[in-house]
Structure to design on (612 residues):
């Protein structure tokens, strides 16, 4: 990362002055602490544990190894925030999602560098960020449209006006695609919150940096605290709390592991959570963004309204 | 403290060191209470709760529902103790008494123009008489904070003594409303005054004023009880009320009682929690210990 670079640049006349070189070399590196994102704040994990990631620029970064208690705290925050978030107008949610896209766009340079440091090629990093921004705008657009498109007036053979509309499921716990640096996380958060759900997302274990930097974007985007909470850590440790917590209404698990799928589905039956298990996919493909990803975390409410009496 | 006096003299009340009180309180939160100890602690806390509903919109149905909750905290999980008492307005005492018939749960009534206490003495006494006649086992009275802050200690003393007399056999809890007393020194003075005037319990707050119960305020009151016990050998009960909504905080309070007064105060006869949300949080924690899964309020009755 830029902050740690201590290389000397030639001065204006082409030769580095000795004093300038020494001064630059003596400056201590200022490294960013990557912390988790709960309830609009950046705490360290309550467990105090961390794991270390080696970056392609030879730096090492310590990342929070979140515990089940961090998850518990996140669920409390998400539950607290859910009703208010769902109570905002769809148009306002749309504006906020668009704002997230704007903020991500302005941080393009930082994200590019981070993605490259985590092993992406410069071209791939640029493409990934562009798609992430576009994807946020895509779902921002759907916020105040999916209900019109997918609600229905149902013909019934009695004197009732019968209609169905969509409501958010509630609190969603998601384990993001472990092979994606940024796009997998963005592509799951955006459709979940578009309809008024709140989310606790576990970032990729091996690529957690851009997830935390994305949390900084969220934190400066008028998104109310608790709507999105991002943890870093191990899937093996957090899969069980994610799927057993009684106050979670739906889970999204991205895994290629058949046993994880079985565990998720079995545990989710405890309080009949909605479950979506998906294998790791190429998130850059346009086919992996569609409004049905919003529908996965909504409930259909059907109303029978008497008429003609 | 001079305990032979028939009135209250503030000169005998020791000053309170706020800094050390706060530091001491911070220590109580560092005890590690896990597994079976935690379960036992939570069950003890449950048995100390005064399940409370004190709202202008209270109805008979709401009170009956609360009484049912008091007797059946969570039938899905056997072995949960019932709460100590149900705390209601005087007009609801009869309803609560009837609903709790056959159980060991007491009915506490707030009297004396709760929560402000702004009424003439005769009205307060009538209020108390009424609640006792309706069958209240415990009376929660409020002191006249205005008079107390003006330094009219004798007025407050006489009022408490008069209400105590009106209580007859009912236990008297004296609410200091510490949120309006401004300083810990005042809290200590009011505690000493209430104890000398005949309180069976001293209680922090009505729950209608913020801040309600806090750990420093409770510690100062516990120390007043402790000093009175050393001087006379008589035990006085303590009831923090309002703002204690989580199991963890309840355990911190139990630690504080144990380390300030000792284990003989650790039962519902001498220590109570005035709370309405705490019960469900304790139930969720107990269920979590039993099943291993974090719980949701959706699966516990409101009241």
């Amino acid at each position: 990362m830029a902050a740690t670079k201590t290389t000397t640049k030639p001065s204006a006349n082409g030769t580095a002055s000795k004093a300038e070189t020494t001064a630059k070399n003596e400056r201590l590196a200022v490294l960013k602490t990557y912390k988790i994102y709960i309830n609009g704040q950046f705490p360290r994990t309550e467990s105090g544990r961390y794991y270390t990631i080696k970056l392609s620029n030879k730096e090492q970064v310590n990342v929070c190894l979140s515990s089940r208690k961090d998850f518990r705290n996140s669920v409390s925050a998400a539950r607290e925030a859910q009703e208010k978030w769902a109570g905002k107008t769809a148009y306002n949610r749309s504006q906020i999602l668009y704002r997230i896209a704007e903020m991500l766009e302005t941080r393009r340079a930082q994200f590019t560098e981070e993605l490259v440091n985590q092993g992406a090629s410069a071209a791939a990093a640029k493409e990934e960020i562009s798609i992430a921004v576009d994807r946020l705008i895509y779902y921002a657009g759907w916020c105040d449209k999916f209900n019109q498109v997918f609600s229905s007036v149902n013909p019934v053979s009695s004197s009732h006006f019968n209609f169905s509309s969509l409501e958010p499921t509630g609190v969603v716990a998601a384990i993001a695609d472990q092979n994606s640096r940024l796009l997998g996380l963005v592509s799951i958060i955006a459709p979940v919150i578009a309809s008024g759900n709140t989310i606790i997302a576990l970032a990729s274990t091996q690529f957690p940096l851009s997830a935390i930097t994305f949390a900084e974007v969220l934190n400066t985007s008028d998104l109310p605290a608790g709507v999105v909470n991002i943890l870093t850590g191990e899937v093996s440790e957090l899969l069980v709390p994610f799927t057993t917590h009684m106050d979670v209404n739906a889970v999204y698990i991205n895994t290629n592991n058949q046993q994880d799928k079985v565990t998720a589905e079995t545990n989710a039956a405890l309080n009949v959570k909605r479950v979506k298990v998906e294998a790791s996919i190429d998130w850059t493909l346009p086919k992996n963004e569609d409004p049905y990803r919003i529908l996965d975390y909504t409930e259909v409410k059907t109303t029978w309204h008497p008429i003609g009496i | 403290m001079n305990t032979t006096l028939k009135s209250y003299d503030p000169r005998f009340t020791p000053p309170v060191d706020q800094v050390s009180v706060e530091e001491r309180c911070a220590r109580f939160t560092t005890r590690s209470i896990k597994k079976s100890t935690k379960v036992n602690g939570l069950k003890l806390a449950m048995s100390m709760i005064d399940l409370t509903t004190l709202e202008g919109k209270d109805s008979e149905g709401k009170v009956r529902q609360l009484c049912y909750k008091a007797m059946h905290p969570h039938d899905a999980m056997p072995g949960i103790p019932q709460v100590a008492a149900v705390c209601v307005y005087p007009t609801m005492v009869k309803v609560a008494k009837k609903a709790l018939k056959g159980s060991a749960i007491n009915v506490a009534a707030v009297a004396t123009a709760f929560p402000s206490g702004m009424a003439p003495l005769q009205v307060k006494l009538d209020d108390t008489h009424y609640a006792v006649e309706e069958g209240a086992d415990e009376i929660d009275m409020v002191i006249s904070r205005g008079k107390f802050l003006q330094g009219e200690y004798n007025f407050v003393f006489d009022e408490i003594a008069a209400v105590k007399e009106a209580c007859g056999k009912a236990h008297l809890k004296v609410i200091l409303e510490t949120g309006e007393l401004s300083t810990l020194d005042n809290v200590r003075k009011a505690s000493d005054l209430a104890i000398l005037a005949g309180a069976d319990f001293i209680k922090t707050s009505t729950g209608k004023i913020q801040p309600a119960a806090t750990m420093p305020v409770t510690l100062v009151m516990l120390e007043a009880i402790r000093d009175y016990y050393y001087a006379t050998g008589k035990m006085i009960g303590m009831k923090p009320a309002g703002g204690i909504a989580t199991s963890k905080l309840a355990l911190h309070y139990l630690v504080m009682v144990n380390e300030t007064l000792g284990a003989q105060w650790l039962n519902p006869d001498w220590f109570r929690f005035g709370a309405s949300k705490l019960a469900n949080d304790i139930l969720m924690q107990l269920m979590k210990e039993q099943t291993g899964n974090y719980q949701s309020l959706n699966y516990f009755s409101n009241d």
Chain B touches chain A at residues 292-299 (CB under 8 Å). The mean pLDDT of chain B is 95.
